[in-house]
Amino acid sequence: MKNRALSIKKLSVSFKMNGQYYKAVDNIDLDIMENEVFAIVGESGCGKSATAMSILRLHNENYTKIEGEINFGGKDLVSISEHGLNKIKGKEIGMIFQDPLSALNPLHRIGKQIEEMFVIHTNLNSLDRKNRALELLEDVGIPNPEIAYNSFPHELSGGMRQRIIIAIALSLSPSLLIADEPTTALDVTIQAQILDLMRDLKEKSKASVILITHDLGVVAEMADRVAVMYAGQIVELANVDEIFENPKHPYTKSLLSSIPRKSKSTNRLNTIFGSVPDLMNMPRDGCRFSSRIPWINEKEHEENPKLQEIEPNHFVRCSCYKNFHFQDSSIEKVKEKE
Amino acid sequence: MWKTTFRRIIMLIPQLIGVTLLIFILAEFMPGDAFSGRFVEDPTIGSEREEELRELHGLNDPWHIRYTRWVGDMLSGDFGLSLVHRRPVLEMVAERIGNTLLLSIVSIVIIYSFALPLGIIAGKNWDKPSEKIISFYNFVQMSIPTVVFAIVLQWFFGIILGILPLRGSIDVRVVNGTFFEIWGSRLQHVILPALSISLLSGVSVIRFLSNEINEQRHLDYTVTARAKGLSMDKVYRNHIFRNSMLPIAATSGSLIAGLFSGVLIIENIFTFQGMGQLFFTSVSQRDWPIVNFLVVFYSILTMAGFLISDIMLTIFDPRIRIK
Amino acid sequence: MANILEVKNLKVYYPIKGGLMGRTIGHVKAVDDISFAIGEGETVGLVGESGCGKSTTGKAILGLVKIHSGQIVFNGEDITKYIGKNRSPYRKNVQMIFQDVYSSMNPKERVLDIIAEPLRNFEKLTKVEERKKVEELLSIVGLSSSNILKYPHQFSGGQRQRIGIARALALKPKLIVCDEPVSALDLSVQAQVLNYLKDIQEEFGIAYLFISHDLGVVEYMCKNLMVMHKSRFVEKGTEDTIYKNPVHIYTKRLMAATPDLDTKNRQKNAEIRKKIAEEYENSKSRYYKEDGTVYDLKKLSEEHYVAMP
To answer: The domain at C3-222 falls in which architecture?
Structure first.
């Protein structure tokens, strides 16, 4: 049995809007095991990024409320002091962001931005810092480390910048890496390079990775286990093969069938009825997905659906998955009510 | 970078030609010239002699010849004589420029020494009471006309408290005094006008800086900095402040250029013996050589201000540095 | 099948200014000598990565950028000269759908005005007719007529994209240039928009130039395909032949980089990518000229062209 790298218990994240708090993440339980890639996937507004950002409390504190527990190395990251958390940030938990250009300070040279990690967390002298930074640049596959070291972010390509971000995240060999849409801003060929690099580095460092993404292709390429989120909740959690070959929850099934694929090019793509409710109008009771599958009888839904283990290591929320079927194509033409 | 700077300087030439042309044309439209009305009370000089003098001084030449002569004279350092005082323009300006320079420098020092800290406090505490108070101060300050504000300062410090002189640039009694007496008096006289200029001009710096800090704080790179394990204080110190100062440095040139126009008005209110006051009296006395010179002078200063801004930006912001 | 659009030797160059006086000292070749044709009611895909020139190609067809040289033939007529003219019949027949549709809409205009704008430019309709037409267009893209007085910000991304489609449809164009129409959208919304595009094509016989970086989407939408790289085409042909038998190294790289949904292929795909990367390093001269540019297209078969010496 593997050990837990991170354990999230009853986590809720609320954002303040118009003076009131709204839950973007609602009561989530998650265990991230050592040396695994755990993907959280879902469409915009499902709460996947809010979950990731709350682990290091990176939200604007004035507008955010975090409840629950996040256990990491015997400490609760939700209640730990700012000072205590700062010692973990970067050093034990690294973070990779979506847009590598805006995630770097435009006025600092690359070398300085990498070395900042050593300045914060180590006592290395400036020569050692520089040598470590150059080594890191080489590790992440940058062809001319010396040149990159002295460059400003805007002088590098998108792919190179994301490598820099990865170098920063890996600089102190953290045991957990949080990657928030790490390849969304990149071209496909660059995306493949970055994903291959992340996979290699992960194998070497034995770190765990939490991968936040909306791209099921990236999930299929990278993840060991997957949580599918919808409207602030996890609706399905299973091994990656299970998710793609044996999806259970209507939302997972709908997502998978809306991916354009050659084999289906004669058919219409599946779409999901209606649209994702925004934060202020999020349903709070019952099955949150029920409004997106109105042709399913109300009786199929649980009153208070919980994530349940229906097969070993395969969790699904709400019993509506049992008798779910796609909308009849004749009714599909029914236009949305705006 | 030198190439760009050089190109920018070259580009100033057509602008300068434009400005001087404009001034020249405006002066053309003014009724009368240097001789009209001058000899009305002198019966020995008839209108024929007046016409001769015009011919002699080239006033009847076509406009483009007179324009090039004027510009050529300026280029060779000859700015002409004051019509009223019969003294070289340059000499009269030189007497005043020291005072104006002192006033400007003191104003700039005051602006940055109070506006930067206030801007930082407001930016850091966005939406909190301290920012609201500073914003309220800004609002009040902005809605007061310069003249009114200057008069209020005069009334409060000069009359109620009686600790600062109301007007002038130096106490006549110490003109022949020791070095310390002279400078003490000069500084005393410069405080009120400098305050009137800087408190008002400082508002834009405060607003600009606080907005910028608030904006920078929400950019992704600050999240990266926090994720590295920096405390919020250090994120401010190592990242946000420097990045927020960039536009401040960039606008400093134009701020200084703008300062001169503030100086024009303020010097008059305080009858401060500077170039602004010289400008106003010269306009009212139709002393065109002085007016023309000052307009050209201020135009060059303004252009230089903007040029300096641009150069500062290329120095501080690597993104627009020219390779 | 007749061609609705033929592009011949299209070049779009942007001048590089330099020197003391800002003279033109060179050109950036954004699009460098490409030719292709689109048949009536057909969808042609144009794939490539950012900066390869695919968007510029789309803009050139709409006359939004200056054409350096080349010819654009619409419906058998050379219209290169008129392309920049605002109200030419060509501009009525060719429309565009943008990726960032929100920025292409005036936030202060209502849906009615946004969709009616092309109508007002080209057709003289009464207020009543215009409104009826807009309602009709909205219903084509699945939006109810109650939306007609709303503003763009009141819609979700997918709905806005559909409003953009309705606007493009207003003049019953023969060709729509779709520039990354779904890349900013969530998966389920993307599916919806793609479905609408297909339905509309069937109903009105509109041809699409479908510009995208996403091979999956292109595969789903298009029968013919052009792969663009470094401002030129590296491969051109039917989608079938290219996907089954990619010849140019760049096409291979692009295809190997596209994520595979089958988790069992993970290891295999990574190895394929490694092999292709090696091939790319070792045999650059086979695929690129000495100065790094792409060769002219060479015919392999009626359905397959590739850029090789």
So the answer is: 3-Layer(aba) Sandwich (3.40)
Rounded Cα gap, residues B203 and B197, in angstroms: 11
Domains of chain B are: 16-75 (no CATH), 92-320 (1.10.3720.10)
Average pLDDT over residues A3-27: 94
Which residues are registered as beta bridge partners of B267?
none
Q: State if pTM tops 0.80.
A: yes
- Best mutation target among B228, B248, B320 (most A Cβ atoms within 10 Å) is B228
- Is A133 in CB contact (< 8 Å) with chain B? no
**How far is residue A314's CA from residue C108's CA, in Å, rounded to a whole number?**
49
Domains (range + CATH), chain A: 4-223 (3.40.50.300), 247-332 (no CATH)
As to burial, measured by CB atoms within 10 angstroms (0-12 exposed, 13-18 middle, 19+ buried), residue B263 is buried
DSSP letters along C287-309, please?
Answer: HB-TTSPBPPEEEEETTEEEE--
Closest-CA distance, A92 to chain B, in angstroms, reads: 10
- Give the distance from residue A67's alpha carbon to the nearest chain B alpha carbon, in angstroms: 20
Q: What is the mean pLDDT of residues A121-149?
A: 95
Chain B residues whose beta carbon lies within 8 Å of the beta carbon of residue C17: none
Q: Determine whether the interchain pair C187/A258 forms a contact, defined as Cβ–Cβ distance below 8 Å.
A: yes
The complex scores an ipTM of 0.88
Give domain limits for chain C: 3-222, 249-309
Supply the DSSP symbol for C65: S
Q: Residues of chain B whose C-beta is under 8 A from some C-beta in C?
A: 3, 6-7, 10
User: Which of A183, A258, A281, A329 is the mutation pick for testing C, counting most C CBs within 10 A?
Assistant: A258
CB contact under 8 A, C264 and A241: yes
The dihedral built from the CA positions of residue A136, A139, A141 and A144, taken in this order, carries a sign that is positive
Flag if C257 and A189 touch (Cβ within 8 Å).
yes
With CA atoms as reference, report the closest residue to A5 among A236, A228, A202, A207: A207
Give the model confidence (pLDDT) of B256-306 as tens digits. 777 877 788 889 889 898 888 898 888 888 788 888 888 888 888 888 888
Judged by average pLDDT, the poorest of B45-49, B84-88, C40-44 is B45-49
C153: contact with A, CB 8 A cutoff = no
**Between residues 192 and 231 of chain C, which touch chain A (CB distance below 8 Å)?**
192, 194-195, 198, 213-217, 219-221
Q: What is the pLDDT of residues A53-73, one digit of tens each?
A: 999 999 988 889 999 999 999
Residues 6+ apart with CB under 8 A from B69: B58, B61
Q: Name every chain B residue with its beta carbon within 8 A of the beta carbon of C16.
A: none
Of C220, C243, C259, the CB nearest to A260: C220
The whole-angstrom separation of Cα B269 and Cα B99 is 15
- 3-state helix/strand/coil string of chain B: CHHHHHHHHHHHHHHHHHHHHHHHHHHHHCCCCCCCCCCCCCCCCCHHHHHHHHHHCCCCCCHHHHHHHHHHHHHCCCCCECCCCCCEHHHHHHHHHHHHHHHHHHHHHHHHHHHHHHHHHHHHCCCCHHHHHHHHHHHHHHHCCHHHHHHHHHHHHHHHCCCCCCCCCCCHHHCCCCHHHHHHHHHHHHHHHHHHHHHHHHHHHHHHHHHHHHHHHCCHHHHHHHHCCCCHHHHHHHHHHHHHHHHHHHHHHHHHHHHHHHHHHHHHHCCCCCHHHHHHHHHHCCCHHHHHHHHHHHHHHHHHHHHHHHHHHHHHCHHHCCC
Determine whether the interchain pair B223/A103 forms a contact, defined as Cβ–Cβ distance below 8 Å: yes
Which residues of B are less than 8 Å from A105 in CB distance? Answer: 221, 224-225, 239, 243
CA C57 centroid distance within chain: 8
Q: Which of C159, C220, C257 sits opposite A191 (nearest CB)?
A: C257
